[in-house]
Q: What sequence folds into this?
């Protein structure tokens, strides 16, 4: 039986990137088209299924901090980032300009928290034509290569790879 390990996780990204929707999909398996701006921070928790790696079984309870989005690179609420064990950095595939702020978010987050694991997430695949998706994925993978972290394409609406994003972050914590 695995001991449950508590970890503070942050979801960071531009406003409207889908951070709250990803959390709602992951924790409650729900989605709503209604947009409600996060003000400050909201904390939700979920216990992940046990993960086995190299004959070692671990189970995490993620305390997921949904932090108000940045706006055009202006980072708000950095004090909420302190003490985090990892983060999902969420970009909006429908707004490629959100990619330009991602590097700044990553660098500031890593500096504040002594280089914890991160996963870069390109959200809203359900709204992107397949002809454009490969190009966007290539851009995300290049960014992920720069920061030596995984990148996944997700859709909070359909649930595509949302749970996998959180599980991948947990796996990175085990490395």
A:
């Amino acid at each position: 039986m695995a001991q449950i390990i508590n970890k503070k996780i942050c979801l960071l990204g531009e406003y409207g990137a889908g951070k709250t929707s990803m959390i709602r999909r992951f924790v409650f398996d729900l989605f709503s088209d209604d947009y409600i701006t996060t003000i400050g921070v909201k904390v939700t928790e979920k216990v992940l299924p046990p993960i086995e790696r190299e004959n070692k079984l671990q189970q995490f309870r993620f305390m997921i901090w949904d932090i108000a989005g940045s706006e055009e690179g202006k980072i708000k609420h950095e004090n909420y980032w302190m003490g985090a064990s990892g983060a999902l950095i969420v970009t909006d595939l429908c707004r490629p300009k959100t990619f330009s702020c991602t590097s700044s978010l990553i660098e500031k987050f890593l500096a504040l928290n002594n280089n914890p694991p991160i996963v870069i997430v390109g959200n809203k695949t359900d709204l992107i034509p397949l002809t454009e998706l490969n190009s966007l994925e290539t851009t995300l993978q290049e960014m992920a290569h720069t920061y030596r972290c995984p990148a996944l394409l997700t859709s909070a609406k359909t649930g595509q790879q949302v749970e996998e994003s959180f599980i991948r972050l947990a796996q990175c914590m085990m490395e």
The first strand starts at residue 4 and ends at 13. The domain at 4-174 is CATH 3.40.50.300 (Rossmann fold).
